[in-house]
């Protein structure tokens, strides 16, 4: 009952010996995620929290049969980590790293577009399939197994919404943080398609924000292909134009990326848009059987 | 990070894009010297990091060095859209026949590099895109192939440029692509890319032309980058220490500069409710909720991860540097960090802060009861929901000002 990650995920941690990598490896293991190995160039042969460390991704994949990778590598080395994981044939890469130069991501996208690798992020909190696997930095305790698919460009705002759903007894199939950068690996549309096809997702929560036109594209896609109820929230109605609101991608430029336009596009195709984050569980509850 | 026109054009020139002869001046006397050296007429251009300089009267012609001095003095006294004019660019005046647009950017919707050209130059390209989109042509560029010559020709043909200029246009497009990629820009535009004539003697004659990397013109008309704009990717500045030094701090509110140095995201706004939040999305949602109760946020501020004492201390300093602030709303989602630890961090961070401004706090997550109790003991107004917190903050601000 999930998309992207579940009990069968065999996870590799790139940057496992770093501070973040070590901390979150322990968190993911505690949650029950099957972390099979880690990679830090030059640290092969070491162990982190009982997980073997390898020098290269290729070697790690051969030794462990990993089928997904999570990247906790500083921005200047992260693109190389993504290329390495893709070249080793991993079908799923999740990149947490914030601050990767946008031209590096343009090259990464152009490279990945020609392969069968899915990238989630960068600058994202990762994935959580409650009760099965946590891949990234989301706090595990906020989720509850269930049938609501959550997809978001944010971090803590996502946690807030997921936790509020959980407190109401409404569980989630998978929570997906797609990231706050202007160029990301997986868009709202990609995740909406997966949720629509997932037999155990009954409805979808979409959390967007100012900048770009991914929400507008999501609205078009929902209109054509999504039959499950969608509830949305768009952050940044009070954001001024031309200013980056924390996320590199959260900026109103040349009159595009406005919250009002996104809300209008979503409402026009029948999506219910919450006025504030705490309103989301009320709207979701109305769709429950 | 935005570069000034004169900085952008200097970079263009390093890559072989022809620009007018000119020099930047910080005083009226300097402007006169430059005008004397170039020969008149000259154009005096305010160097501020906002659009619409022309409409605001920040771009003016001067026919003599004396006039250049007077015009520069007037322009240097101006404030354009809130930004003081600290420098003017003195450029030789050009005899313009036609104005084109050429820009390199990231097409976010397509997630690809794009070069854009238009026959409608000299005006805001976004305005052109809205009103006459048929005048805009665009090519997407593979970052591993780079801009190919045929793509530049596609642009030249698409905007109806006369064939005799295609060679120069292609060289300029290639140079613009290179300057964009080499400097890790998110925007590099020439607007206008003008077709100028040499007809009127010394108006465009001089060293600038003979040293033009494009060589002698094949006709009386030639292409010249009259204005330029480059926006750099802040995340890539670590690769470009030389470009990072070009930052103009007068473009930023002082608090924004301090926030940047502490690696915090802060944007000053004009309202009265200071906001301290962990996470950018949640920070925007908090601002929006304040607005629902009829007040305006004073700022956007993301203190990141676990709300450590050190970050909280800087955040309080930033928020309180704004005299409009009449209440501070703290909204923290304690994810992996427990809320009692977050509360201790907030209290420790506040130790050095002396203020009567009311503080409203909402903590969510593990141990939130304990966290709330700690803050209540320290005279914080606490709330369980974001709606409750925003309402209390707006009420407290009204009482504080009253």
DSSP, total strands of chain A: 14
Low-confidence stretches of chain A: none
Mean pLDDT of chain A, as a whole number? 96
Number of domains of chain A: 2
User: How would you sum up the major sheet of chain B?
Assistant: 7 strands, antiparallel
* Form type of chain B: elongated
What is the fold-level CATH name, i.e. the topology of the largest domain in chain A? Rossmann fold
Helix count from the secondary structure assignment of chain B: 14
Helices and strands in order:
The complex is a heterodimer of chains A (289) and B (402).
Chain A: E1 11-14, H1 19-31, E2 35-39, E3 47-48, E4 51-54, H2 57-64, E5 68-71, H3 78-87, E6 92-95, H4 102-112, E7 118-120, E8 126-129, E9 133-136, E10 145-152, H5 156-167, E11 172-177, H6 188-197, E12 203-209, H7 214-225, E13 230-235, H8 259-268, E14 272-273, H9 280-286
Parallel strand pairs in A: 1-2, 1-5, 2-4, 5-6, 6-7, 10-11, 10-12, 12-13, 13-14
Antiparallel strand pairs in A: 3-4, 8-9, 8-11
Helix pairs in contact in A: 3-4, 6-7, 7-8
Chain B: E1 2-3, H1 5-14, E2 22-25, H2 28-38, E3 42-46, E4 59-62, H3 65-76, E5 79-80, E6 83-84, E7 88-92, E8 96-107, E9 112-118, H4 125-131, E10 136-141, H5 149-158, H6 166-182, E11 185-197, H7 207-210, E12 221-225, E13 228-232, H8 241-244, H9 254-261, E14 265-268, E15 273-277, H10 280-292, E16 299-302, H11 309-320, E17 327-334, H12 339-350, E18 359-365, H13 368-377, E19 381-382, H14 386-401
Parallel strand pairs in B: 15-17, 17-18, 18-19
Antiparallel strand pairs in B: 1-13, 2-7, 3-4, 3-7, 5-6, 8-9, 8-11, 9-10, 11-12, 11-13, 14-16
